[in-house]
Amino acid sequence: MSTTKSYHSYLIESLKDPNEAAAYLNAALEENDIQLFLKALKNVAEAHGGINQLGELSQENPEFSNLAAILNTLGLKLEIAVKETETAA
Is there a contact between 58 and 74 (Cβ–Cβ < 8 Å)? Predict the structure, then answer.
């Protein structure tokens, strides 16, 4: 029997930490790919025991209110931040 942990198991365990979950979701959001973000959100939900409402988000055009409700249930919130830009030297 193998004593190594699968990557998915490790990922799910690490996503139980709200800071890890937030960083993971932000990284997925930066890719501008809704399907990638929804997969990341499903992984975070799995880390928290699964969320029934998550099925609603797998639609092609998820509603913002659904996303806000799911993030709230996970103890997270959506925020907007100023994009860092490089300054001319």
Answer: no
